[in-house]
Design a protein that fits this description.
It is built from six helices and no strands. The chain has 140 residues and is an all-alpha fold. The radius of gyration is 14 Å and the shape is globular.
Length: 140
């Protein structure tokens, strides 16, 4: 498993705690709840993602609502919301990462923590977001 994947997994678990339980983000980002070894690179990447989502949550949630087609945000599972949030953040803030890689990573996380059906939903939403919000702004 790559350090980016582990960092994303950590970020997902952290965002889940923040969203579901209301854990303070700074407390969650200490990762003292995680019982496996974490490299500095994994932790730094997870913190980057979590901070980015926390700081941009309102705007990201607006985008999720826009592209979720007739789904209220509250109807989307906490795990799926968190995956969408961190993936949209990556698509917006990490232009050096190829969009298909970010979307594939989101799909893999969804398969790991949710269902195949959820993975299709995540893939479709992120693909639509990318094609309408990111791709037109990329230099050609």
């Amino acid at each position: 498993m790559s350090s980016r994947h582990r960092g994303r997994s950590l970020a997902l678990m952290c965002l889940y705690q923040i969203d579901l339980v209301g854990t303070d983000p700074d407390r969650a980002m200490k990762f003292d709840w995680y019982d496996k070894k974490i490299t500095r690179e994994e932790k730094d990447y997870a913190v980057f993602l979590v901070k980015g989502v926390v700081e941009n949550r309102k705007a990201i949630d607006t985008l999720i609502k826009k592209y979720s087609e007739n789904w209220e945000l509250s109807r989307i599972s906490v795990v799926n919301r968190c995956i969408l949030r961190l993936s949209i953040l990556s698509l917006q803030k990490e232009p050096f990462l190829a969009a298909p890689v970010v979307i594939n990573e989101a799909v893999e996380l969804t398969k790991e923590f949710e269902t195949e059906e959820s993975a299709q939903f995540i893939n479709g939403l992120l693909d639509a977001f990318y094609k309408k919000e990111i791709l037109p702004k990329e230099p050609h």
